[in-house]
Amino acid sequence: MTFPTMPTQATAATVSNMTSARPALPSAFAGGGGSTGFSPAFQAVQADVATFIAQGGGMSFDSPDTPLSADGAALRARLAAQAIGGTDLANGAVNGAVDGNGIDGDAQQQFLATIRPHAEVAAARLGVSPDIVAAHAALESGWGQRPLRNGTADSNNLFGIKAGSGWQGDVAANVTTEYEHGTPVKKVEKFRSYPDQASAFRDYADLLASNPRYQKALNAGDDAHAFASGLARGGYATDPAYVQKLSKLASRIARTEY
Q1: Rounded to two decimals, what is the model's pTM?
Q2: Catalytic-labelled residue, pool 203, 222, 239, 257
Q3: Burial class of 104 by CB neighbour count within 10 A (0 to 12, 13 to 18, 19+)
């Protein structure tokens, strides 16, 4: 997903740069077979840790008072996300939401019922069906089951909106997948964090209604494909299949009685 911020280049890492001075890692990364084992989560970020150290950024991950560079903060955020099981919360939500994989019907119904009042208000401002707004929230949050996290708390960011330089609110760092020239690249990005779902829907409607990039998505009525295409043309997402995914989910919600 991509929003107000521009994508950055993926990290090029080399494990051979690992030294005896490597930083201490959280206990969540210890392998189950003994103190010297490495879990899959550790292995996934091991190369990034190596490069970070090689570039002179060594520090202790279990010391919250240690000053961090921007790269160090992003790496710590990635480790934290891995530790709580969020290997790719943002992208995993999108890929798992279209057909409701792993999410039972009752959970889907409960999610739609909960967000319906907010979706109706946002939809009225955007000139689209509430079903389309609900589908967009379901797609980005995995039916509310895979929310972006602010630490261990829910960020209530149901639409995967990134925190650009102009954002004055709370921020949640999460691992996500961006598509650069059609190639998926995992990276840590900063996302907006809200106190509640109502705030998330208001900000979502404000963003789409006020940003000229998304004007072609407005007033699409019941045409989910036109709405999704307008978002894609404005750069809301980098996934080349995003229009198809959102259109399919909106159509499914519209024809199903929850």
Answers
A1: 0.61
A2: 203
A3: exposed
Summarize the confidence of residues 154-162 as an average pLDDT: 93
Tens digits of residue pLDDT in 9-43: 444 443 333 334 444 444 443 444 444 444 444 45
How many CA atoms does the CB half-sphere of 106 hold within 13 Å? 0
Query: Is 203 noted as a catalytic residue in this protein?
Result: yes
Candidates 154, 178, 189, 239; catalytic one: 178
Is 178 an active-site residue?
A: yes
